[in-house]
UniProtKB/TrEMBL annotation:
<dbReference type="GO" id="GO:0005506">
    <property type="term" value="F:iron ion binding"/>
</dbReference>
<dbReference type="Pfam" id="PF00067">
    <property type="entry name" value="p450"/>
</dbReference>
<dbReference type="GO" id="GO:0020037">
    <property type="term" value="F:heme binding"/>
</dbReference>
<keyword id="KW-0349">Heme</keyword>
<keyword id="KW-0408">Iron</keyword>
<comment type="similarity">
    <text>Belongs to the cytochrome P450 family.</text>
</comment>
<dbReference type="InterPro" id="IPR001128">
    <property type="entry name" value="Cyt_P450"/>
</dbReference>
<dbReference type="GO" id="GO:0016705">
    <property type="term" value="F:oxidoreductase activity, acting on paired donors, with incorporation or reduction of molecular oxygen"/>
</dbReference>
<protein>
    <submittedName>
        <fullName>Cytochrome P450</fullName>
    </submittedName>
</protein>
<keyword id="KW-0503">Monooxygenase</keyword>
<dbReference type="GO" id="GO:0004497">
    <property type="term" value="F:monooxygenase activity"/>
</dbReference>
<feature type="region of interest" description="Disordered">
    <location>
        <begin position="1"/>
        <end position="21"/>
    </location>
</feature>
<dbReference type="InterPro" id="IPR017972">
    <property type="entry name" value="Cyt_P450_CS"/>
</dbReference>
<keyword id="KW-0479">Metal-binding</keyword>
<keyword id="KW-0560">Oxidoreductase</keyword>
<dbReference type="InterPro" id="IPR002397">
    <property type="entry name" value="Cyt_P450_B"/>
</dbReference>
<dbReference type="InterPro" id="IPR036396">
    <property type="entry name" value="Cyt_P450_sf"/>
</dbReference>
C-alpha cells in the first residue's frame, strides 16, 4: 500500500446518523505499509503518523484493530485519562477489534497493572509500603557486587567475546529481583521461558501455559514465606497491613509477585541492552561517557531511556466510553496503545529528538515517559535507574574497549516491547 500526498492518508466517508453532511476520517492503517522495517525500527513509522496527528486507528493482520497514540503531550494525556481503563478483568468484555483479547481470567491477574482506581490505589498503597526507596537504596552494594562478579567472569573469556544478555544483563536482573523477593534457587531455564512467553508471547495458548506453570511455583513460595517470614520484599508484602487493617489477598499477592518477577525483569534487561546498542551506534557519545563516568552516567541513563524506551508502548487500555484525544474521537470499546517510545522522539518536546545526547540539560529535554505517567507510573523505576547507573559505570570502567561483535540477534516483538535477546560484544 502506498500513501498519497495527503498528509492525513487515505480517508473513508460516512454520513452522520442524522443523514446530514458527510463526515470523513482517516482509514485504519497498517504500520508495515508505512515502513516494512517497523519490526526492527518503529521510530520512522511513528514519525510519519505523528506528522498526521496524535491518534490513529491501526490494523494488524486480517482482523485485529487498535488505536495508537503518538506524540509526547497526547501520550501524557492518554496515560492519565480515567476513561481508558487498564482493568481488563472487569472491562475487557467491552473491547472491540481484537480477535483474541488478553486472557485475564484465572489466578495471577489481580495485580495493580490490571486495575483502575480505587482498586489500583489500594494495591499500590500496599505495595509501596513494602517496596520503599530505603529498600531499593539498600540494594546498591549487592547490585555492585553481582555486577563486578559477572563482568569478571565475562572478561575471563579467552576469545574476548560474549553475549551481553547471557553474560550480564539477564543474570544480573534475575539475581537482583530474586534476592529482592527472597526467591531461592529459582530454575533459571524455567524462569526465562515463563518470562519470554508472558511478555512477548509466541501465541495466546503458550502465554497461558507459561502463566499456568509460574502460578503454582509462586503459590508455594508465598505459603513458605507466610510460615517462615524473612527479610525480603515478598515476606513484607504478605504481612503488610495498612491503617485500616487491609492487606493483600492470596491472589493479589501471587499476582504482585508475578508482575515483579516477570514483567519488571524483561523491561530492565531490554533497557540495559538498548542502552549498550545506543552507545555503540554513537561513538562520540560513548567516548564522552568513558571519559567522565561519574559525571555523565546519570544523564546517560536518562538519555538511553528517552532515546529508545525499554517498553515501546504502554500496556493496552480499553475505552469504556468515547474519548477525544488531540481532536480525534476514539470510540467506546477501542483498544488503545500509547507509544511511550515515540513520546521520547517528539520534536515538540525535545530538541533534535533523534540525536542521542547524554549531556542534555535543558528543562524541555527532560521528562521522558519511558516509565509511564500518572497512577500507573512504574513502581520499579528507581530500581531500574539504580541498576543502569551501576552497570554502565562498572562495565565501561572495567572494559573500556568494549564494542559490538556483529549484529544483535534473537529479535522479539511483543504487544508492548521490542528488542534483541542476544547482544554480541568483544573487547
Amino acid at each position: 500500500m502506498k500513501w498519497p500526498d495527503d498528509p492525513n492518508g487515505p480517508i473513508r466517508s460516512h454520513p452522520e446518523p442524522s443523514g446530514g453532511a458527510v463526515v470523513t476520517e482517516p482509514a485504519a492503517v497498517d504500520l508495515l505499509d508505512i515502513d516494512p522495517d517497523f519490526g526492527s525500527d518503529p521510530y520512522r513509522a511513528y514519525a510519519v503518523l505523528r506528522a498526521r496527528g496524535p491518534v490513529h486507528e491501526i490494523r494488524a493482520g486480517e482482523k485485529d484493530r487498535f488505536w495508537l497514540v503518538v506524540g509526547h503531550d497526547a501520550c501524557r494525556e492518554a496515560l492519565t485519562d480515567p476513561r481508558l481503563s487498564r482493568d481488563w478483568p472487569r472491562n475487557g468484555h467491552l473491547a472491540t477489534g481484537l480477535e483474541a483479547p488478553p486472557a485475564t481470567d484465572g489466578p495471577g491477574n489481580a495485580h495493580m497493572l490490571l486495575s483502575d482506581p480505587p482498586d489500583h490505589t489500594r494495591l499500590r498503597r500496599l505495595a509501596a509500603r513494602a517496596f520503599t526507596p530505603r529498600r531499593v537504596a539498600a540494594l546498591a552494594p549487592r547490585i555492585q557486587d553481582v555486577t563486578e562478579a559477572l563482568v569478571t567472569a565475562m572478561l575471563a573469556a579467552e576469545d574476548r567475546r560474549a553475549d551481553l544478555v547471557d553474560a550480564l544483563a539477564y543474570p544480573l536482573r534475575m539475581t537482583v529481583i530474586c534476592e529482592l523477593l527472597g526467591i531461592p534457587d529459582l530454575d533459571r531455564d524455567a524462569f526465562r521461558g515463563w518470562s519470554d512467553e508472558i511478555t512477548a508471547p509466541t501465541g495466546a495458548e503458550a502465554a497461558r501455559a507459561a502463566q499456568a506453570e509460574a502460578v503454582p511455583y509462586l503459590g508455594g513460595l508465598i505459603a513458605a514465606k507466610r510460615a517462615a517470614p524473612a527479610d525480603d520484599l515478598l515476606s513484607d508484602l504478605i504481612h503488610t497491613v495498612d491503617e485500616g487493617g487491609d492487606r493483600m489477598s492470596e491472589d493479589e499477592l501471587l499476582s504482585m509477585a508475578l508482575l515483579l518477577l516477570l514483567a519488571g525483569h524483561e523491561s530492565t534487561v531490554n533497557f540495559l541492552c538498548k542502552g549498550v546498542r545506543a552507545l555503540f551506534a554513537h561513538p562520540d557519545q560513548f567516548a564522552l561517557l568513558r571519559g567522565d563516568l561519574d559525571g555523565l552516567v546519570e544523564g546517560a541513563v536518562e538519555e538511553m531511556l528517552r532515546y529508545d524506551a525499554p517498553v515501546e508502548t504502554a500496556p493496552p487500555r480499553v475505552a469504556v466510553e468515547p474519548v477525544e484525544i488531540g481532536g480525534r474521537s476514539v470510540p467506546a470499546g477501542a483498544v488503545v496503545l500509547i507509544a511511550l517510545g515515540d513520546a521520547g522522539r517528539d520534536p515538540a518536546r525535545f530538541t533534535a529528538p533523534d540525536r542521542f545526547d547524554i549531556r542534555r540539560t535543558g528543562t524541555g529535554d527532560r521528562g521522558h515517559l519511558a516509565f509511564g505517567h500518572g497512577v500507573h507510573y512504574c513502581l520499579g523505576a528507581p530500581l531500574a535507574r539504580l541498576e543502569g547507573r551501576i552497570v554502565f559505570r562498572t562495565l565501561l570502567s572495567r572494559c573500556p574497549t568494549l564494542g559490538p561483535d556483529g549484529r544483535p540477534g534473537g529479535r522479539f516483538s511483543g504487544l508492548f516491547a521490542q528488542g534483541e535477546r542476544k547482544v554480541p560484544v568483544r573487547w
